[in-house]
Amino acid sequence: MKRLARLLFAAYLTAFLTISGMSAAHAELQIDEMRELLQKSLTITQIDAEITRIGEEETKVSASLRKAEADMKEQQAHVDRTRERLGQVLRAYYKGDRESLWLLVFRAKSFSQMLTFYDYLTYLYRSDRTALVGYREEYAKLLESHRQLELVQMELASLKAEFIRQRERMIAIQEEIDRKLEEHPDAAAVLAQQMAAVQASWKEKGLPLFQQYFSAMSEAMQKLPEKIISDKEKHYIKGTSLDISDADLTRMLHEEKAELGNLVLTFADGQFQAESQEGELKAIITGHYTVEEDPNRLQFHVDKLEYNGFLLDETTNRSLEKTYDLSFSPGLVLPMLYAKEVKTDNGLLSIRFQIKF
User: What is the mean pLDDT of residues 324-338?
Assistant: First the structure.
């Protein structure tokens, strides 16, 4: 299959270069190099999008940091005021002022006066206790403000580090492309045209296609557990095991979402693969499921994405995985089912459960 895809790509590229005025022989010599350059140009486009996203996220986190700093400053002022009030109360107890006040109860000249003194002292006691509790609460809030500030600072530092890493990656890849173009000045114009075409195709068609697939699969995955468990004809669940074929799950996806009509699932070698061909657009999603304990579910991880024979960058993989939830939660339908193991082999998605009451 891979050999066929490579031959088709080579034929397409050779035809393009021939039309562009370059000899087929020269094109054949450049196939691998040109494919690598097109791959790099597509990678740069994705990294550039990730850098833009990180920049926008950094702006939001910087605003959160300023708010966290302001909140902590305000909380510190609250603590200082509460500490001052508490200090007055503690000094009063230390000097014995509070104890001497209780003697007024015994010096009352009438029962009504005694009740008045008692009510006053009770109010004073409650006020003192409020000061003690208030300080404890305000101090706890201050500690929480410190914690939130540290988390935001860490997030901002992480974003800045990732921004630098991705920018350095993009610069390095761009330098490689520039060097190649300098080595082949005769082919530079054709290469630039091809790279621009690949980049435009990804932005205008490829990315929207993957977003459509991930979005539709995310919605479908929330409904499939109930559909699988309630199927009385196939009996996918037997005892503490659930086994469903890639063909049956493909059919269910098609029934659930029309947008997934061209998508075909394959379960093999521990991987979950979804492949589609829509006209000139070919998309392949490869990943795997792992069992998460809390909440208990099967979490999908993107291992590899391919678009028209090109491998997509890790930034796109992470972005789509984070944005769209392809997790699978049978326990939402039958709470007693607790997933312990998942496998995708020989055309089957197999889940082993533990019964919990």
Answer: 83
